[in-house]
Design goal:
Two copies of one chain form a homodimer. Chain A is of the alpha/beta class. The first copy, chain A, has helices at residues 30-42, 60-65, 70-74, 82-85, 109-121, 139-142, 162-176, 197-213, 220-237, 241-256, and strands at 21-25, 48-51, 77-79, 91-95, 104-107, 126-130, 147-149. The first copy, chain A, is globular. In chain A, 52% of the residues are buried. The interface between A and B is large, with 74 and 73 residues.
Chain lengths: 264, 264
């Protein structure tokens, strides 16, 4: 096993949250994780997250393929679910070659990099989801994203290697920042910040719990699709913290036929 | 040895000279040639040239790493010298991480892609030189180029994988040609049409009626503001007809603790 000791990071890449998280879902090949780490570090990104990696972890092949980006691998976080991996993020993009049957804004890597820079300037954390090598992201993963990201490839040969996709997004992030990243985080007013995905999930679960109690989701085959559809509606709304509290209050009020101050 | 038979090329990538030549000098790893071919084809490039490859050629590993970009490999041309490889080109860029003691214009990939598009529009052929994995291009190779190309990487971790460099240049070539992705995916089929404002208002009134019944809107001074806030959330979601029906079903279910098919 190659050395996994912490490597001293350079000043440019030290601060947590100084760039988007790269989230690999069910990656099969350790080499691809290593090449992803290299591509990230080439453009100053360090926040790598692995959801249910299909390769052993840690893995010597990842280390050798990273060509020295050990710090990124060493600090990679492992998650059981995509939902947990994005819980602290405010904006989430999902890379996909196939634009599926789903209502979402779509951006190319350049557009999404600009979106993320704007979000960061307002103190919001961002992340990018990348699916498994052959099959890409599940629909349930796509439902967790507010934006789909598509690279304008040759339509007859569109499948990008995983690390190549990461590279393009990392590169565009860098390009969109010029030489500078914002040095000051500014929020406007209490509750005006975008809700984190964790707060949004709590709302979803609350809502779905009430729907379950009402028997709304009782048809088993339709349940997950129905939930996905409803989550997609709220995802598109990109709610603020205050708005999530409001919506929770709405659900409580309607479900219990009374308004309780302590609920929101 | 994998199949090296000519593959039928698609119309987009057929014409010779419809994009810049990618010229790899003294490449060591056949996998890198294969991944280069894949990256090229991802963005519609087909003219691959190899100067003194250090790997056996053709090579099974190149073919497997190309993930199907066989046509590019099959038609790759081999040269003894870089000078011969660029003889038919009018503009030549050389990729280098280190900006050496040489008087040349320097561009980033985006700038160089624009330069090449301009050159092509005037009937001039272009090419991009890429050096060997560890050492990059010789000074003699750089001397054959009219422009140096540097990717703005993290200064403390600047070494890009060879195929990654090819990818960035191919991608910027494609982007400079005005590649576009759709800006939004809309579901197709029944119920996929955007809901009319009338349908959306009916939903609002239904929701607000339930909120009133629950006493949620009883504080008069805040009522209109609260209603406005909630309407804004759903407004941003730009719901389809089907989604409005779904949300109405959700409200009925939660409010009445039972699911009635006739409601949505």
């Amino acid at each position: 096993m190659a050395n996994l000791e912490p490597t001293k990071r350079d000043a440019d890449t030290k601060t947590p949250g100084d760039g988007p998280a790269v989230i690999l879902v069910e990656t099969s090949l350790a080499e691809n994780v290593g090449m992803t780490a290299r591509a990230m570090m080439n453009f100053g990104l360090t926040d790598l997250r692995l959801v249910r990696p299909k390769c052993k972890w840690p893995h010597a092949k990842a280390i050798s393929a990273s060509s020295g980006a050990h710090a990124v691998l060493k600090e990679a976080k492992i998650f059981d679910t995509t939902a947990e991996a994005v819980a602290d993020l405010h904006r989430v993009g999902a890379t996909t070659a196939r634009l599926r049957d789903m209502i979402k804004p779509v951006q190319d890597p350049r557009g999404w990099a600009g979106t993320m820079r704007d979000a960061f300037a307002e103190g919001n954390q961002c992340g990018i989801l990348f699916g498994a090598e052959r099959v890409g992201l599940h629909n349930d993963d796509l439902a967790l994203a507010d934006t789909l990201i598509t690279v304008p490839t040759n339509p007859s040969f569109s499948s990008l290697n995983l690390a190549q996709s990461v590279l393009l997004l990392s590169y565009e992030w860098q390009m969109a920042g010029g030489a500078e990243v914002p040095t000051e985080i500014r929020r406007k007013g209490r509750g005006a910040a975008l809700a984190s995905q964790g707060e949004v999930f709590d709302f979803y679960e609350h809502l779905e719990d009430e729907m379950d109690k009402a028997g709304f989701l009782r048809v088993k085959e339709k349940r997950s699709r129905m939930i996905r559809n409803i989550r997609n509606i709220f995802n598109r709304a990109k709610m603020t913290e205050q708005e999530v509290r409001t919506m929770r209050g709405v659900v409580v009020a309607i479900a219990e036929k009374k308004w309780r101050k302590e609920d929101f």
